[in-house]
Specification:
single chain; about 150 residues; mainly alpha; 2 domains; about 90% helix
Length: about 150
């Protein structure tokens, strides 16, 4: 019975992921329409950012779908060990970017510039969090092995 529930949940998840991926396609098309209509550099830049994020979301969703339908994703301690020092360095780089973004926000007097810099700041924080999570996986995987 537990397997049947898991299988039903997996089916529901796959259905949802496929719908979500379709929604990302709609977002990308919507952004393309906006880009064709506007020549304003602010609108162009922000719309491109949204479109790029949607492309990234599609790729991640597809990876999850493939891991459920083709071959499971495997992440070994060796995979993480190969990049551990680089991840540590990358976390420091992201922190520098966060510090710079925060300083730039403080220095700016233009509301539009501040808003755009805040968007970048949020991305930099997310990047740092993602790198830290990958780094923390190394310890979780190692703990399970030993």
């Amino acid at each position: 019975m537990a397997l049947a529930k898991a299988s039903e949940r997996d089916k529901n998840l796959l259905t949802l992921l496929k719908q979500w991926k379709g929604l990302e396609d709609i977002t990308i098309k919507s952004c393309s329409s906006i880009l064709k209509k506007s020549t304003n550099p602010i609108i162009q830049t922000l719309t491109n950012a949204i479109r790029n994020d949607s492309e990234k979301h599609k790729a991640i969703i597809q990876l999850v779908i493939d891991s459920m339908t083709k071959k499971a994703i495997v992440l070994t301690s060796e995979d993480l060990a190969d990049v551990a020092s680089l991840l540590d360095k990358h976390i420091g780089i992201e922190q520098k970017a966060i510090d710079m973004a925060e300083e730039a926000i403080e220095l700016s007097r233009d509301a539009i510039v501040v808003q755009m810099l805040k968007l970048i700041l949020e991305d930099e924080k997310k990047h740092k969090k993602m790198a830290k999570q990958m780094n923390e996986l190394k310890f979780r995987i190692t703990a399970k092995i030993t």
